[in-house]
Amino acid sequence: MTQWERLQQLDTVYSQRAFDLYNRDEFPMEVRHYLAHWIEGQDWERASRDSSQAAFLFQVLLENLDNQFSRFAQERDSFLLQRNFRRYKQNFQVNVLLLPKPSYTMPSESLWISEDLKMLNMLNKNYTARLNACLHQRCVSVSIHVCVCLFVCLFKNMIHCFIWQVMEHSIRCLEEQQDEFDFKYQTHLMDCENFLSDISTMLDAADVLRSVLIDEELVDWKWRQQKSCIGAPDDTSLEHLEKWFTQIIECMFQLQKFLQKLDELVGKMTYENDPIPVRKPPLKSRVDTLLTNLIKSSFVVETQPSMPQGRGSLVLRTNVQFSVKVRLLYKVSELNHVMKVTVSVNKFRKFNVLGTLSKALNMAESMNGGMVADFRHLTLKDQKVGGGGKGINDLSLSVTEELHRIIFQTQFDYQGLSVPLETFSLPVVVISNSSQQQSAWASVLWFNMLCSDPENVKFFETSPAATWPQFGEMLSWQFLSCGKRGLDNDQLETLAIKLFGKQQSYDNCKISWTKFSKENLPDTNFSLWVWLDGILTLVKLYLSDLWSDGSIMGFVSKGKERLLLKKKQNGTFLLRFSESIKDGGITFSWVQYANDGKPLFGHAGTDLKQIALPDILCNFRMMIAENIPVNPLCYLYPNTPKDQAFGKYYSEKTGEENPYLKYLKTKLVFVSKE
Known about the structure:
Layout: H1 3-8, H2 12-20, H3 29-34, H4 36-40, H5 44-49, H6 51-74, H7 79-97, H8 108-126, H9 128-137, H10 140-228, H11 239-268, H12 275-297, E1 299-306, E2 315-317, E3 322-328, E4 340-345, E5 351-354, E6 358-360, E7 371-382, E8 406-414, E9 417-424, E10 429-431, H13 437-450, E11 466-467, H14 468-483, H15 489-500, E12 510-511, H16 513-517, H17 528-548, H18 558-565, E13 572-577, E14 586-593, E15 599-605, H19 613-619, E16 620-623, E17 629-630, E18 635-636, E19 640-641, H20 642-646, E20 670-673
Parallel strand pairs: 2-10, 13-18, 16-20
Antiparallel strand pairs: 1-3, 3-7, 4-6, 4-8, 5-7, 8-9, 11-12, 13-14, 14-15, 16-17, 18-19
Helix pairs in contact: 2-10, 6-7, 8-10, 9-10, 10-11, 10-12, 11-12, 14-17
Protein name: Signal transducer and activator of transcription
GO molecular function: DNA binding; DNA-binding transcription factor activity
Organism: Cyprinus carpio
């Protein structure tokens, strides 16, 4: 008799409690009943310790279930048992799939069998006599003992089943939560790293833009402005720079706000290996550095210091008002009338700065709404140094070789960023009387032609020489400024020959500061600059239109002059600058032909202070034989009729245009002896 059969022979009350142990889907009573012989014949104790043995028994269990299923299929009355056994097999297989991998342990149902059989074996070995007595004698004490044992076994299996189900569900939930947490954590880390990397990439791009903007574009603008101060026709507008500075600074402030948002995130929650606290500070430092660099560079002098009636920019006279304009290239309305700019002068030579020394950057004083401070009424006044002298300056330099800089300072406070700003004018020459203006302008020309470092205020202590291409370009700018036309190649070559003699090329020829401004020209008592400046003044005051339209040949040697004229028709003339007049003079030379065809050359100088050159040319007369006045000037070189070239400039009107000429028949006539 099997132990299962013995268990069935217990009293109904006690056997029912035992049967309740199997009245569950985990290990159904039908399986226990029909496979009792096989179940009780296996070593379940070993199976509970040996996973391979447990796997083997489980496979045999499935085979037995299949065999029993086949037997039921042959019996007409076993339809329900057939369906149940198929379901039992599926349940066992599903439970095995839920076991942890890769280890293989005995399914909970099989372990239950093992525990049940242990209990029955114990009952069989230790309480056989008492169980038999219970069966035959209805011994109450033995029945109660068996019942207690069965109940304990049932309770143990119930607890086992409950723990298995609850723990399995909990572990599954924890696993899902862990997977979700790991996914979100890894995603969060990746998003943080990508975000911070994106900011770093943007800062790399911003640094490239900063370099282009500050080291190239701004430097190029400053050099163009410096050249424009001595007449170069360069564009010095700031609209593009202002637009670029404003846009990139705004972008940098946006990045700064993003980094501040990261601070808020870290303040709410952080964790070990959080990339934000580690990588954010260097990024913030880069943003602040870039912003500071950009904002400092955006404070510039838009219009260099100049006097209203001065020769040009950068020459100032004590006790005479001058103006200067500074500009912040970061255009932001919130700072309008907020930033105060103060003015001072460097201590190279002591001056008091008088006038309005502090002004707010504002948008009202700019044509395009830029942030400017326009100082229009500043004055420099010499501070008297005890014992006289020139203060701390090197006594070997003249006053017109001293260079000074006007200093502008303000404070930038915006979006949590505080930056002191400072900018300087180009070096200025400060004079005390008008007689020094010519020499002062020579210094300004020489410095801005050769030096791109505005901080070099000791430039004239060791002034370098200028190459002819540099010098010729600078001279051309002067004539362009005074007469709206620069020097052409023929005019430049004439000057080069005058300075260096006939050369194959003049590119390597040099002229020193001393030769330019201090040494006298051969056979004269004035320097090269005095001669050139006199001509420039003459052009500016009297000859601007004639120089602009090309009527004046200007620089041509006497030898070349005759070579040009002798090939032209009688009465051809040209206009050139005098080489012997200190304050600038112009002469006209013409060609006439004798009866034998020999060319004869004449020339005459003029004084333009009273009468304009076109009128002189129109009314000029020569006294020939029998004192007959004749005008020898007929064609402007090469072959333009005189009245066609100069008629539009004549001041004398015809009788129809001026009724007074009907009665007043007199006019000025310029007469020269043959």
